[in-house]
Structure formats: C-alpha cells, structure tokens
Amino acid sequence: MKSKEHTRQVREKVIEKFKAGLGYKKISQALNIPRSTVQAIIQKWKEYGTTVNLPRQGRPPKLTGRTRRALIRNAAKRPMVTLDELQRSTAQ
C-alpha cells in the first residue's frame, strides 16, 4: 500500500538520473527511496511522458475505514437500532 506521494522535484531527479544512465538500484541509493518507487516513477514517465500526479480512478468512498468500523460496531451492539438512529449517531 502506498503511503505518500513524492514531491515533483524528487520525481524529476529520478528521471534525470535515469536519463544519465544510472540503474534503479543506484538511483534508489542516491535519493534514499525504495527501488520499487524508482521503478514505478520511471514506468509512469515512460508510459505517460510526465511525472505529474495523475487523477485517480473511481469515486472516493463516502465513509472512511474508521467510520465504517464504528458503524458496524454500533450496529452489532444494538441490533434493533433503526437506520435513522444509526446515521445520527455516526454523524456525531
């Protein structure tokens, strides 16, 4: 799972070093980022010709994982609760 996006400067440095002939391993050691990240940046650059963050696919979920778990916990605690009461308690 990806944890963060790298700055544009870092991604451009990766491409510069790749164009200079360095391999994935040497680039990752020089910039102190994982080799798989270097590989992903270079593949994206080869495919799209840019290092800019592209828009993601799909609609973002309305509930976060944390909210979803809380909703399930509340419903399990009180199985006879109505949907309206559950929505109000989640909104708070």
Structure write-up:
This is Sleeping Beauty transposase HTH domain-containing protein. Residues 1-51 form the Sleeping Beauty transposase HTH domain. It comes from Cirrhinus mrigala (Mrigala). Pfam families: HTH_SB. With 92 residues, the chain is mainly α. Helix content is 61%, strand content 0%. It has helices spanning 8-19, 24-31, 35-48, 65-77, 83-91. Helix 1 (8-19) crosses helix 2 and helix 2 (24-31) packs across helix 3. The protein is elongated and about 65 Å long. The two termini are 30 Å apart. The mean pLDDT is 88.
Task: Write the topology of this structure.
Elements: H1 8-19, H2 24-31, H3 35-48, H4 65-77, H5 83-91
Helix pairs in contact: 1-2, 1-3, 2-3
InterPro entries: Homeodomain-like_sf, HTH_SB, WH-like_DNA-bd_sf
Organism: Cirrhinus mrigala (Mrigala)
Pfam families: HTH_SB
Which terms summarize this structure?
5 helices; 0% strand; 92 residues; mainly alpha
Low-pLDDT regions? none
Nearest-integer average pLDDT: 88
Which bin fits the share of residues in helices? 55-70%
* Count of alpha and pi helical runs: 5
Order of helices and strands: HHHHH
The tally of strands reads: 0
What would the principal axes of the Cα set say about the shape? elongated
Radius of gyration: 22 Å
Distance between the termini: 30 Å
Pfam families: HTH_SB
Protein name: Sleeping Beauty transposase HTH domain-containing protein
Domain Sleeping Beauty transposase HTH: 1-51
